[in-house]
Amino acid sequence: MEPSATRQDPGAASRLRSEHELRAERTAALARRGIRASNIDAGLDHLVCACGSERYGLPLKAVAQVLPMRPLTPMPGAVPSLIGLIALSGRIVGVLGLARALGRPESAGEPGHVVVLRGTPAHQPLALAVDRVLGIAPAAATSATNPGGLGNEVASGYAPGVAGADRPDFVIIDLPRLLRRALP
């Protein structure tokens, strides 16, 4: 506001100060809100899948799509974790059983979903067969740094559940390491 306007209206200076204080308070509140939000969901989103009684998280950026399980064509002489092939949009996609690839016991029922991966080695389309896809959950960036004796070298961390937030705990899978181990 111009100085001449302040001389004409004695309350203008107090309004100017109030607007300035209001803007400063609003800026501080917005900054606090951003810090709180980043602390709550810091880290990467993961697609949480069930294999038997275990829950595993796959980095969401590595997932192209999720489909219901479809009939597989077996491939004789393939590596044990490759359970078959499917046709998807005119391409042949190799399907790895996630439980088999991890060396875990398979569930008694049929897998329910196929998780198609993106950016796989040698640009060969690959998918993972899982019992069920549970949803998407964030994992803190610090949870992926120390597996803490999970007993499986493809597990890169553990993401604990959040109480009251309906987020399950799950083991974070290091996909490049899993694929190197499963596909010689």
Task: Calculate the mean pLDDT score and round it.
Answer: 77
Largest sheet: 5 strands, mixed
Q: Give, in spatial order, the strands making up the sheet with the most strands.
A: 8-1-2-10-9
Number of strands: 10
Our measurement of the CA-to-CA distance between the termini, rounded to an integer number of angstroms, reads: 73 Å
Tell the overall outline. Answer: elongated
Quote the beta fraction.
25-35%
Radius of gyration over C-alpha positions, nearest whole angstrom: 26 Å
Task: Please outline what is shown here.
This protein is α+β, with helices and mostly antiparallel strands and 184 residues long. It is 26% helix and 33% strand.
How does this structure look, described?
The chain is an alpha+beta fold and 184 residues long. The chain is 26% helix and 33% strand. It contains 4 helices and 10 strands. It has helices at residues 3-8, 12-40, 98-102, 175-182, and strands at residues 44-51, 54-59, 63-68, 82-88, 91-97, 113-117, 126-130, 132-139, 155-159, 170-173. The longest helix has 29 residues, at 12-40. The chain is elongated and about 90 Å long. Mean pLDDT is 77; it is low at 35-41 and 142-151.
